[in-house]
Amino acid sequence: MAMIDDNSKEQIKKIFEPMKESVKVLLVTTKDNCDTCEDTENFVREVTETSEKIVFEVIDINDEKAKQFDIERTPAIVLLGAEDKDYGIKFYGIPAGHEINSFIMGLLEVSGAGEKLPDSMTERITKIDKPIDIKVFITLSCPHCPGAVAKAHKLAFMNKNINAEMIEANTFGELSQKFNVSGVPKIVFNEGDQELLGDQPLEAFLNTIEGL
Known about the structure:
The structure is a single chain. The protein has eight helices and eight strands; from the N terminus they run H-E-H-E-H-E-E-H-H-E-H-E-H-E-E-H. It is of the alpha/beta class. Strands 2-1-3-4-6-5-7-8 form an eight-stranded mixed β-sheet, covered by helices on one side. Strand 1 (about 25-30), helix 2 (about 35-50) and strand 2 (about 55-60) form a beta-alpha-beta unit. The longest helix is centred in the C-terminal third of the chain and has 14 residues, at about 145-160.
């Protein structure tokens, strides 16, 4: 049974029309203790089939390629550019529900069809010269979460020093507990050095990063 109806697929197909370059969606799964891996594979396959610009590949977490991209848990999705260029954009958990929006925005971003930022904002982002890790905890029913995820992923796309992960809080309960996730979106910088709650403006992300 299809996870996305035909009408939604047609809408997604039109959204993907501005894509400039090809994007590879690398899905990392495992056959052991992964309740959502099968659903994630089916869902992502249906999304990626709506555009010829998207290549879909599935590997096991024990594959060398999974280690190359520092995959720590499953299901995991990595968005890659030409020649498997890694922009530090990851999704941990199925990007369904409201989160399909951040998944679509991530694909557009990596293809070169992302939203252009003001020069002043771009300059601030490109000046970041230290390693930054951003974890955005979400739930699939949260309407405000995709905006926070998309901003984190945009920062990662624009600066090689930044890695950004969407983490589905219910799928990864232990990790959510570790970072005291009681509301979403919760944005964690560098393993808890700083935190933000809610879909904050990009300015708030940058102010936080610059203060680290």
